[in-house]
Write a structure and sequence with these properties.
This is DUF3263 domain-containing protein. The protein is mainly alpha-helical and 82 residues long. 77% of the residues lie in helices and 0% in strands. The radius of gyration is 14 Å and the shape is globular.
């Protein structure tokens, strides 16, 4: 399914958010009209789509690497806790 306008807005925001003044959570609410939790939920789903990869390949690769690193770190902590 092709990206919606909201999908593109989320990807574009994530690529550019550092240029916004103030906290990211505030910018998410004011710019996109979403709660931060919903934003991250949608972004997480988006980065697994081919359409998002096509829209901004560098951003999607970076976000996937960050997610994978966090998952790997959590798995390591869980194994250490045993």
């Amino acid at each position: 399914m092709p990206l919606t306008d909201r999908d593109r807005a989320i990807l574009d925001f994530e690529a550019e958010w550092r240029r916004h003044a103030g906290a990211k959570e505030e910018a998410i609410r004011s710019d996109l009209g979403l709660s931060p939790a919903r934003y991250y939920q949608l972004l997480g789903r988006l980065i697994d789509t081919a359409d998002a990869q096509e829209h901004d390949p560098m951003l999607v690769k970076r976000l996937r690497r960050l997610r994978d690193a966090r998952l790997h770190e959590r798995a390591g902590r869980a194994a250490d806790a045993r």
